[in-house]
Design goal:
Layout: H1 3-12, H2 16-21, H3 25-43, H4 46-56, H5 59-67, H6 70-83, H7 88-113, H8 117-157, H9 163-180, H10 183-194, H11 212-221, H12 230-243, H13 246-259, H14 266-294, H15 306-317, H16 319-352, H17 366-382, H18 390-416, H19 419-422, H20 429-454, H21 456-465
Helix pairs in contact: 1-3, 3-4, 5-10, 5-13, 5-14, 5-16, 6-8, 6-12, 6-14, 6-16, 6-18, 7-12, 7-13, 7-14, 7-18, 8-9, 8-13, 8-16, 8-17, 8-18, 9-16, 9-17, 10-16, 12-18, 12-20, 13-16, 15-16, 16-17, 18-20, 20-21
């Protein structure tokens, strides 16, 4: 018997091993994790506090680094190639508190209710709104999975791997990770994979002329290359969509529940989310600088796909940096495919009352696993369609995520203001002001883009007046 089980057994006068064995497998694993945490919490030593911190972190870092998914990497690469080093550098720094604020609410909601996001909406607001929010999520997740396999197949093609082979291999890898790992191991392996997202930062040292002055000037000028245009609004929406997306709300809340966090763990969840948000923004800025320094000027109309962007990048910095970039792109798609497929499984199972946990053995969790596995297979197949406009598709998917986000955030804010759900942990007034301001900004940007498409003359006149 492990030390923590022995500790509990001696002090509670129970045979902990027998008690645990009587539980269903998924609940047994979660209970073991909670007992392990309780044991370290009772020790009150500096080492145990450090160990406790590393036990409780995970969902926030994972959701934020997975947010720098293949679609996000491609979006940031396209952003730098179109607009260079200017407006989008300080804009991404502004996205750090926005991303943290949105995701911190899911930590509190999950820790207080011990219920996933889909389950809360379904039970609190009924089947109609539950179906509406679930439909938004499933559509957005499927489209986002397509962008993950765009990144995986493009990245692996740099090493000469045929796209069909890389698509098949990574679908199988994601399925195996979901099926055969319990939550704690699944989370730790996912975090290990996610750490490779940082590969984009050291790539900055391979630039022939590091753009230090341009980086500093971007904060003074907020320069928009080409000025405000429909393309700028489109790319701005894409960057919003890859920073805050509906799947992130569902994933982190369900992950908090599956991990077993409670009210007393909220502060750890907040730190976890802050670390993840910071890493996400650092990586995003690094990618924009990389392509803004090497590809900007070749893509003023936003017509270059990621394949051509990488070719120009390689011509400027060499083969080895290109290969590191490609590895980062593959990692980004891989970790996001793991997270997004889990998000789909959790949400659908919560909505329909199926068993719902990464801890579920394959034979008991068929309904939990199958929907996301089907989505993985179909999404991977879409990327293999000959001559598909993958670059345009990637940006469009991020824009669609932005269109879906206001509704998802509205449900989140309604739940956070429901005293019957949250008790004394309801949102404070300042939190509601920030939350509804974010919703308003998203709606405004969506409206401006719609205006630029439907009534370009009116849009240009409006821009001219600013």
């Amino acid at each position: 018997m492990s030390s923590w089980k022995k500790h509990v057994s001696e002090h509670k006068s129970i045979n902990i091993a027998n008690e645990l064995n009587e539980l269903p497998e998924d609940l047994r694993y979660r209970t073991e994790d909670r007992l392990h945490i309780a044991f370290h919490r009772e020790k009150h030593t500096h080492i145990s506090k450090i160990e406790l911190f590393f036990m409780l972190i995970g969902p926030g870092i994972l959701v934020m680094i997975a947010d720098n998914d293949a679609g996000g990497v491609i979006t940031y690469a396209q952003t730098g190639s179109i607009f260079g080093i200017g407006f989008f550098i300080p804009f991404m720094i502004l996205m750090l508190p926005v991303a943290y604020f949105v995701q911190e609410m899911t930590v509190r909601l999950g820790a207080v209710t011990h219920r996933g996001h889909a389950e809360m909406i379904w039970k609190r607001y009924g089947k109609f709104w539950g179906s509406f929010s679930l439909g938004d999520l499933v559509i957005a997740n499927f489209l986002t999975l397509i962008t993950e396999f765009i990144g995986i197949t493009v990245g692996m093609s740099i090493f000469g791997v045929p796209r069909i082979l890389s698509a098949i291999v990574f679908v199988i890898l994601v399925i195996l990770i979901q099926l055969f790992l319990r939550y704690y191991t699944w989370e730790r392996i996912s975090l290990f994979i996610a750490a490779f997202n940082l590969v984009f930062v050291p790539l900055l040292f391979f630039l022939p002329h590091p753009p230090v002055a341009d980086f500093i000037n971007s904060f003074a000028t907020w320069k928009i290359a080409g000025g405000v245009s429909s393309l700028f609004i489109y790319v701005l929406l894409a960057n919003l969509g890859t920073t805050i997306a509906p799947w992130m709300l569902f994933f982190q809340q369900s992950s908090v529940v599956d991990k077993g966090l409670t009210k007393e763990d909220i502060k750890f969840g907040q730190r976890d989310t802050l670390i993840g948000s910071t890493v996400m923004v650092i990586v995003a800025i690094a990618i924009i600088i990389l392509t803004g320094s090497t590809v900007f000027g070749y893509d003023s109309n936003g017509t270059l796909g990621i394949d051509n962007i990488l070719k120009i990048f390689a011509a400027k910095v060499g083969t080895f940096p290109l290969e590191l970039f490609a590895l980062g792109l593959v990692e980004a798609g891989f970790i996001a495919a793991i997270a997004i497929s889990a998000s789909t499984s959790w949400a659908m199972s919560e909505a329909f009352g199926w068993k719902k946990s990464i801890n579920l053995p394959a034979r008991e969790g068929v309904l939990f696993y199958v929907p996301s596995f089907l989505a993985l297979a179909i999404a991977a197949s879409v990327t293999l369609i000959p001559n598909a406009p993958l670059g345009y598709l990637n940006l469009t998917v991020q824009v669609i995520a932005t269109i879906f986000m206001p509704a998802a955030m509205l449900f989140l804010l309604l739940l956070l203001n429901d005293r019957g759900v949250m008790g004394d942990m309801v949102n404070k007034r300042w939190q509601n002001i920030i939350g509804f301001s974010i919703i308003g900004f998203l709606i405004l940007m969506n409206a401006l883009y719609g205006l630029s498409v439907a009534l370009p003359t009116v849009f240009n006149h409006l821009v001219g007046m600013l």
